[in-house]
Amino acid sequence: MIQDLSDLQDPEPEATRRDAGNTESSRASRGWWDRHADEYQSEHGAFLGDDHFVWGPEGLDEAEAGLLGPVSSLEGLDVLEIGAGAAQCSRWLKAQGARPVALDLSHRQLQHALRIGGGIPLVEADATALPFADGSFDLACSAYGAVPFVADPVQVFTEVHRVLRPGGRWVFSVTHPMRWAFPDEPGPEGLSVAASYFDRTPYVEQDDTGRAVYVEHHRTLGDRVRDVVAGGFRLVDLVEPEWPAWNSQEWGGWSPLRGNLIPGTAVFVCERA
């Protein structure tokens, strides 16, 4: 689970596992990221960089991975970044000659994108209802954005399929499904199975009235593949980044200890069928 910051002003929310639908999940995500955007960018901004494209806490860099295609092929392409946060990935894409658009549900995250600058078009919208015409983009990407936080990811994939041109590539990263069986802890306590991998019940943090303030949804690896296909895509590659020797940071439940033993991120490389 990528969430690792606590609300310092409000009472600590209760962590539970319960059902949460599309509307509740969307409302919780918007509120959580608006409240925590400042802390998130302050804590992780240096690692992410202002104009780098990093797929996850392991530090897999698109400049080396080329999951969207060869860097030289990006020039002139229209690219949609979903769950863009402060639009770091979009700035890197622009530097390669692409024409990116950065979309996020959180107004505060997009304010950080404005603060950093770079002239990236910014759009505040829900990934399940993309405000673009059919066939508007050549590529779409999302580094830990949107997909883990929606109740029905096929809605996102169907929308991405709609706005992509024929043959367009869709690449997204999420918490590796295996990690849901383990506690979200960076130390030894995070190495023992504590829950069923097959339990799809969402992880919810709720306030004292029972209102969800954070929601994350679990899908097994097989679920993710089936969702990709149901959204109209062909799975080209599934990348499970290994933890590199240079990376000594801890990020929530991600750490060198765990990263050297179990996968923490899954990157799905898909093409529009």
Descriptive report:
This protein has 273 residues and is α/β, with parallel strands linked by helices. It is 27% helix and 22% strand. The chain has seven helices and ten strands. A seven-stranded mixed beta sheet has the order 4-3-2-5-6-10-9, with helices on both faces. Helix 5 links the parallel strand 5 and strand 6. Helix 1 runs parallel beside helix 4. The longest helix has 27 residues. The two termini are 30 Å apart.
Q: Stretches where pLDDT falls below 50 for ≥5 residues?
A: 1-8
- Rg of Cα set: 17 Å
Quick one: how many beta strands? Answer: 10
Can you give the helix content as a percent range? 25-40%
Mean pLDDT: 95
Strand order of the largest sheet: 4-3-2-5-6-10-9
Basic shape: globular
Biggest sheet layout: 7 strands, mixed
SSE series = EHHEHEHEEHEEEHEHE
Strand content: 15-25%
What's the helix count? 7
Distance between the ends: 30 Å
Class by SSE composition: alpha/beta
Topology (elements, then pairings):
Blueprint: E1 14-17, H1 22-48, H2 62-65, E2 78-82, H3 88-95, E3 99-104, H4 107-116, E4 122-124, E5 137-143, H5 153-163, E6 164-175, E7 203-206, E8 212-216, H6 221-230, E9 233-239, H7 256-259, E10 265-272
Parallel strand pairs: 2-3, 2-5, 3-4, 5-6
Antiparallel strand pairs: 1-7, 6-10, 7-8, 9-10
Helix pairs in contact: 1-4
Give me some keywords for this one:
alpha/beta; 273 residues; seven-stranded mixed β-sheet; 22% strand; single chain; 7 helices; disordered N terminus; 27% helix
